[in-house]
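seq as requested:
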Amino acid sequence: MKLNYALIGCGRISPNHIAAALENDIRIVALCDIDIHKAEHLKEEFKLDSSVKIYQSYHEMIKLEKLDLIAIATESGYHAQIALDCIKANINLIIEKPIALSLSDVDEIIKLSKEHHVVVSACHQNRFNKSIQKIREAVEQNRFGKLFHGTAHIRWNRGQDYYTQAPWRGTWEQDGGALMNQCIHNIDLLRWMMGDEIDEVFAYTDNLNHTYIETEDLGIALIKFKNGSYGIIEGSTNIYPKNLEETLYIFGEKGTIKAGGKSVNIIEEWLFADRKDNPDEVKMNYRENPPNVYGFGHNPLYSDVIGAIKEHRSPYVSAQDGRRALELVLAIYQSAKEKRSVQFPLHHISTMDVKKSFKEKNK
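struct tokens:
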């Protein structure tokens, strides 16, 4: 039986969601956006059936339509409230990153989803990259031995045109900065690969080149994980003249890897003491070339969520996973704000807690 599906938010990332929904043969019932023209354009672009309805109000949509799955791809600041309303209507969810902008909100999402027995997946689609799956397999097989340190580099470019396209971008209330928007996928991967559990973080953030936005365009952080390993994050949207790279390194007692490309979709280094596989063959076989930084991960993420709904299990990328990525970004913000290391776990913090101090620092 096909699932009934709707998309809320028909902006920049929406084509990836519709393409994944079509590829996974679920029934697209409705599209929703406060700008009706965006929804109509998306419907026309994908030549969707005339029966697909267009809504301006998601409240009206979830009231009138019988929906099994909704993807939320609106401004980040609206994710949490929309998610909670959908969960109360017993609808399963895929929520674009970040899952929310405050830990209190995501904790409520997790709590309510358990009470209503609905599946909620955070859309960290790069976990499904072939390269990342191969690296994760090596982590789970303990091929690295003792983990020493890992690094995540996001060296991208975002100019004024990007921000003027949508005024919510670069605001603390609706977006967050480079780390929350552009870098959170690789931040998620670093935490996931290095053992998830963190002791403390120390960080700096700054706005060096984007005077017309509220938030940071550079973030640098040092992480101490509970397993004794370390992590380094470098995220920037100041790279001249265009996106340069997104890379993930892991260094261990018995292994070294590097994943690069547009969205960590290419294995560039593969060295292990156990010699279980040929490094040249691995590098040749794990090279995807996506058309943009969004990669190819939405399709398998949708497939997994559909399976989770039908099999009554947790999704591969859960709401709790989305919380971990959010927690780390917020910890970086708090460390930079307070000029000190921040201990884990975190609880009641949001992007709005950072706003005043960051504005004063960058006057």
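DSSP finds 13 helices and 14 strands in the chain.
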